Amino acid sequence: MIKVSGLTKDYGARRAINNLNFDAQQGEIVGFLGPNGAGKTTTMRILTGYMPPTDGEAIVAGYDVVEESLEVRKRVGYLPETVPLYTDMVVFDYLKFMGDLRSIPDVEDRVDEVLDMVGLSDRSDGYIGNLSKGMRQRVGLAQALIHRPEVLILDEPTIGLDPGQVVEVRKLIRDIGKDRTVLLSTHLLNEAQNICDRVLIINKGKIVAEDTTENLQARLIGAERVILRVRGDGDELAKTIKAVKGVQGVETKEDGAVEFEFTSGKDVRPEVAKQVIKAGYDLLELRPLGMSLEEIFLELTGSDSKKK
Amino acid sequence: MKNIWTIAKREFDNYFNSPIAYVVAFAILFPVGIIFSIIMFSSSQQSSFGGPAPTPDALTNWFVILLIFFSPAVTMRLLSDEARMGTLELLLTAPVRDFELVAGKWLGAFLFILLLILVTLTFPIIMDNFVEPGIDMKVLFSSYVGVILVSAALIGLGVGISAIFTNQFAAFFVTFVLFFFLWILVGVPAGFLEKGGEVFRYLSINTHFFETMNRGTINIGDIVYFLSLTALGLFVGTTAIEIRRWR
């Protein structure tokens, strides 16, 4: 449903995105992850027909974004980052206007429907200017959904929402993503982990990684790290574990727990457990420490903040 | 075409939410009303001495002059404000052609001015009742055709300039300077030049409205002049939007 090849965009001398290649299928939620200024918004603006690329090609819902821009725009729902709204308009009138621009039949019924979907039915005759930031975000989402788009492009959809609304909006996006294509950008890693089937990590205009969140973790973790905890403080625990063959990087934590690594595929956990029990400890916890998406992200984008 | 109407309708409705529109309506209609009263009063004084009957051309004359001063306020925010607020991003990602957007904005503002023109028609109608055998309908018709054409052209140019700017006051200022230029300044060299003065005269609104249509003559050339200005404005606006996309 989205197919991007060699997409490049220059702003004057600055290259915002450089030779992007990716695709997204129907029923897939793809997360676009990257630090601010990585080129997420630029890419989305090209995909929605807002501006043409400098080079490369993008096919959205079967149409070329440059050659058949109007056809693309008919089939795409877009929530821009800043959620631009006419603050002097009533919510219902605004959505009706956006619906009219998209030539929706029975537009008033459809407006009621989308207002219900985003949970704003009770504010339909209020002015947009009087809504909270979270509610405006949902009006923006309603506008993006009104024409039942095949492809939904959402730029930071949960920014500025309170935690309860974040959960609701994520659920809504997941529901929509079941039978349509959703491309959403975020710089919240847990959000990507939470709703996306697949993640594209973009940095300085280039895609640095593309995979499912699970695979990304697995791929980057050459060694698996495990935490082990016993009852009591276990002074000699580290020594016991070190003695097991294949154990690397043993590290005693402040609270007495011990972390260690082993090379993927050579699982030493059963042996470690045996030895710990043999040494007379009460084993309480033996748990793999999955690398968080944060760490993967920092690893890939080579950000300085990684070096603590 | 439907998109043009959708955009125009929103814009027209929006004028009734904005104080600027009421200020402009007042600033145009109030002076025209005063002038109407003065005309009626003075002609009633003079009629006892067999003076001339009142004519409505002074009203349309002043209406156009006031339009030159105040219509930039009607058009200044049409597209510049959309760019400033970011709502332009939604319009440009909706299935609407750039021309339809600009033409819709133009139509919305034009309908608002048309409403003001309609209101001023009450003055000649009242005047007609006091004059025997009635005011000259031919002059009335041609001057109102002129007023409508001038409005279309000024609004068109205003929309075009509004598309270039993100700041509505910059748009206002540039629009006003352009109108003032077309109204008075462009005609100035014509008085000095021995040859080529005709070109400057041709470009002036004076030549095409105040000296012709407002006196009862409609020339194809005058109609073409105003329609060309309208088209030029819409073309500039559409191009400015396209350039905005490429930046």
What does the model show?
- The complex is a heterodimer of chains A (308) and B (247).
- With 308 residues, chain A is α/β, with parallel strands linked by helices.
- The two termini of chain A are 41 Å apart.
- Chain A is elongated, with a radius of gyration of 24 Å.
- In chain A, strand 4 and strand 5 form a beta hairpin.
- Chain A has a 6-stranded mixed sheet, with helices on both faces. In chain A, strands 2-1-4-5 form a 4-stranded antiparallel sheet, covered by helices on one side.
- In chain A, helix 3 crosses helix 4 and helix 4 crosses helix 5.
- Chain A is built from 11 helices and 14 strands.
- The model of chain B has no long low-confidence stretch (mean pLDDT 90).
- In chain B, helix 6 runs antiparallel to helix 8.
- Chain B is globular, with a radius of gyration of 20 Å.
- Chain B has one domain.
- The longest helix of chain B is centred in the N-terminal third of the chain and has 29 residues.
- Chain B is 79% helix and 0% strand.
- At the A-B interface, helix 2 and helix 3 of A face helix 1 and helix 5 of B.
How are the elements arranged and paired?
The complex is a heterodimer of chains A (308) and B (247).
Chain A: E1 2-11, E2 14-24, E3 29-33, H1 40-47, E4 55-60, E5 63-64, H2 69-75, E6 76-79, H3 91-101, H4 107-117, H5 133-145, E7 151-155, H6 163-177, E8 181-186, H7 189-195, E9 198-203, E10 206-211, H8 213-220, E11 223-230, H9 237-242, E12 248-252, E13 258-263, H10 269-278, E14 283-288, H11 293-301
Parallel strand pairs in A: 3-8, 3-9, 6-7, 7-8
Antiparallel strand pairs in A: 1-2, 1-4, 4-5, 9-10, 11-13, 11-14, 12-13
Helix pairs in contact in A: 3-4, 4-5
Chain B: H1 2-15, H2 19-47, H3 57-75, H4 80-85, H5 87-92, H6 98-120, H7 122-130, H8 137-164, H9 168-183, H10 188-192, H11 197-203, H12 205-210, H13 220-246
